[in-house]
Specification:
The protein is of the alpha+beta class. It has a single domain, classed as Tctex-1 (Ribosomal protein S3 C-terminal domain). The protein is built from three helices and three strands. Helix 2 runs antiparallel to helix 3. The longest helix is centred in the middle third of the chain and has 20 residues.
C-alpha cells in the first residue's frame, strides 16, 4: 500500500484561534495579585516619603516618579512573576477641593487586579494606583 501524497493543509487564523481557545498557554493557578500586601507597601512608602513634605510643584513632580518606582520595585519583590506591575502616583495641593481619578484599560476580571492608597498631610494629598495585569 502506497502512502497518500496529500498536500499539507494550510493553517488559518481560525485554526490558530480555535487552538488557543482549547489549549491556553497560560494558567490562572499562579500567585494571585494580593491587594492587601500591595496596599501595605504603598502606604509605607507614601508615609515615609511625604510625612514632612509641603507642596511644591517641581519637587512633587520628582516625588511622584520616585514613589512610583519605589512602589513598583517593592511589589515586584513579592513574586508576582506573571504580572506586569504599573504604578501611577498623583500628588496635588490640599486646598479643600475634590478630585476624581479615572483610568481605562483592557481588563481580565479573573486575573487582573489593582490596589489604591491615599495619603494627606497639611499641605498636599497623594494617591497611588497599583495595577497588576496578568501577562502570558
Amino acid at each position: 500500500m502506497e502512502p497518500k501524497n496529500e498536500t499539507p493543509r494550510k493553517s488559518s487564523l481560525f485554526d490558530w484561534f480555535l487552538f488557543k481557545k482549547i489549549n491556553p498557554t497560560f494558567f490562572y493557578d499562579t500567585i494571585a495579585f494580593f491587594i492587601a500586601a500591595v496596599k501595605r507597601i504603598a502606604e509605607e512608602i507614601l508615609v515615609s516619603k511625604l510625612a514632612d513634605v509641603s507642596y511644591e510643584p517641581k519637587m512633587c513632580r520628582d516625588l511622584t516618579l520616585q514613589i512610583s518606582d519605589a512602589v513598583k520595585s517593592q511589589v515586584k519583590l513579592l513574586g508576582f512573576d506573571r504580572y506586569k506591575i504599573v504604578c501611577v502616583t498623583h500628588i496635588g495641593p490640599k486646598m479643600g477641593q475634590a478630585i476624581r481619578i479615572g483610568s481605562m484599560c483592557c481588563w481580565d476580571e479573573k486575573a487582573d487586579n489593582f490596589a489604591e492608597c491615599s495619603f494627606t498631610n497639611s499641605s498636599l494629598f497623594a494617591v497611588a494606583l497599583i495595577f497588576g495585569v496578568y501577562q502570558e
